[in-house]
Write a structure and sequence with these properties.
Low-confidence stretches: 90-94
Strand content: under 5%
Largest sheet: none
Order of helices and strands: HHHH
Mean pLDDT: 85
Amino acid sequence: MAIYTYDDDFVVSSIDETELDKAESDAILEVSMLKITNEYYKEKSVKAKTLATLCLQQLEGDGMEFKYKAYMKDFDRYISLAKTNSSPSNISNIPITRG
């Protein structure tokens, strides 16, 4: 059973649960190997990679190549953000001063 919820019905509607679980497990492994620990970016990266993998499996479908490229772009962006930010709000980078 998938850990995350995938809202793109166009991509997931024709995929059975086993394929979704496999794609998600592979994405989780890949993201963990990249040492992404921030939960926000971890979830976003895993979901983007999972959806990209599912699109790749369905490339013959209309719009799947476009969706694949879009999800891979999201994946790359979230990985990049995760490596440069310690939190999604960047609050840890705000200097604290006393007045």
